Amino acid sequence: MADILIYCEHHEGAFRKASLETVRKGADIAGELGGAAVAVVIGAGVAGLAAKTGEYGAAKAIAVESDTLKDFTVSGHGQAMAEVAKKIQPAAIFMPATSQGRDLSAALGALLEAGCAGDCTEVSVQDGKLTVKRPVYAGKTYVTVQFNSAPAIVSLRPNVFPTGEPEAGKTAQVENMDVAVTPRETVKEVVATGGGKKELTEADAVVSGGRGMKNPENYKILEELAGLLDAAVGASRAAVDAGWRPHSDQVGQTGKTVSPKLYIACGISGAIQHLAGMRTSKCIVAINKDKEAPIFQLADYGIVGDLFEVVPSLTEELKKVL
Ligand SMILES: Cc1cc2nc3c(=O)[nH]c(=O)nc-3n(C[C@H](O)[C@H](O)[C@H](O)COP(=O)(O)OP(=O)(O)OC[C@H]3O[C@@H](n4cnc5c(N)ncnc54)[C@H](O)[C@@H]3O)c2cc1C
Questions:
Q1: Position 141 pLDDT exceeds 90
Q2: Same domain, yes or no, for 284 and 147?
Q3: Domain range holding 301?
Q4: Is residue 100 a contact partner of residue 108, using CB atoms and an 8 Å limit?
Q5: Burial class of 270 by CB neighbour count within 10 A (0 to 12, 13 to 18, 19+)
């Protein structure tokens, strides 16, 4: 009853970084509650992968292996997680607040009639109770939540919790579990977009451009800077709505939530809906020609200037030192 189940999202035979962050945090919290971290890996041929969660603190891993569950579907993986939860009776179920994790947490909440807290930025045990902090009102306010029933369903914002160093060679004890599921949808085709681009939500650095970029061709100056910093390139909704960047690049309330070590906002005014997607970045640099732009209120470093001069200069200087 004090165990923490952790749903581990994976892609092409490897865990998403956010899954490993969630395993590590789950292991810490399970330790405080006097239980164990139990990773759950769902898919076809995943037992070997499941064992690796031990490197991040999972004592045990449950492999739910099934061709039916090869691709993520909300009902399929939701039912599978619910069945595992009924057998294990955990105190809580953690998952990364990725697109899949957000869908899954809501479905699980409904299936288990459980309390949910999404996109948490702090997770702790206070007075013996699981306690989480999560943003509301587009990140303007944070609420602290405790749960009145078990299991508590908690999704963790990617890039907020450290993975820590993997304990090489340490494996979780793997149990294969059969569950009866009747998914209500089937994935017929997966078409990759993004052409191998760095995933925004997992990047340690993000360089974003807004309406101030003026046209799609100008993003090449951001791409060059991003290349030097091993960063992903993001965009404001204004840039996406203009058709300059794909929606998968959008940061904000109706786009992706990022929390990198470094976020560089270029020609972005700092509307509340944009801030909702990046305000937990550890270091925010804003480049804007308007010194009154709201982004400067949040920025750690602000450069008032024309981005078409500032960004190339920054790139040239970085080339000298990187
Ligand atoms: C329900 C809802 C959901 C939304 N969701 C999102 C979301 O997910 N993400 C999001 O981003 N927005 C979202 N928005 C839109 C949001 O309100 C803003 O309209 C949008 O973020 C503005 O984008 P921007 O900062 O690029 O453009 P603008 O607000 O037009 O700002 C452009 C900035 O570029 C600067 N600039 C111009 N030229 C230069 C130059 N040469 N050098 C330097 N600076 C320059 C200007 O000074 C200005 O500050 C949402 C809105 C609503 C109503």
A1: yes
A2: no
A3: 200-321
A4: no
A5: buried
Given a cut of 80, is residue 235 above it in pLDDT?
Answer: yes
Residues 260, 167 share a domain: no
Closest-CA residue, ligand 1 atom 31, reads: 269
Quick check: 5 and 42 in contact, CB under 8 A? no
Q: Taking Cα atoms as reference points, which of 42, 98, 95, 93 lies closest to residue 72?
A: 42
Q: Say yes or no: CB of residue 209 within 6 Å of ligand 1.
A: no
Gap between the Cα atoms of 303 and 312, Å rounded: 13
Find the 283 Cα to ligand 1 centroid distance in Å: 20
Are 27 and 145 contained in the same domain? yes
> What are the pLDDT digits (tens) for 266-292?
999 999 999 999 999 999 999 999 999
Could you identify the residue written with the tokens 């070590």?
A: 261
Which CATH number is 50's domain given? 3.40.50.620
pLDDT (tens digit per residue) in 161-217: 999 999 999 999 999 999 999 999 999 998 877 666 888 999 999 999 999 999 999
Let me know whether 119 and 239 are in one domain.
no
ipTM of the complex: 0.99
State whether 23 and 139 are in the same domain: yes
In the structure, what pLDDT confidence band is assigned to residue 303 with cuts at 50, 70 and 90?
very high
Atom of ligand 1 nearest to the CA of 211: 26
Q: What is the pLDDT of residues 56-67, one digit of tens each?
A: 999 999 999 999
CA distance 189 to 203: 27
pLDDT digits (tens, 9 = 90+) for 252-271: 999 999 999 999 999 999 99
Give mean pLDDT, residues 125-143: 94
Under a CB-based contact definition with an 8 Å cutoff, are residues 183 and 76 in contact? yes
Closest residue (by CA) to atom 52 of ligand 1? 273
**H helices of 92-203, where?**
99-112
Do the beta carbons of residue 301 and residue 286 sit within 8 Å? yes
Residue 305 lies inside a defined structural domain of this protein: yes
Ligand 1 centroid from CA 232, angstroms: 19
CA 72, 118, 255, 164 torsion-angle sign = negative
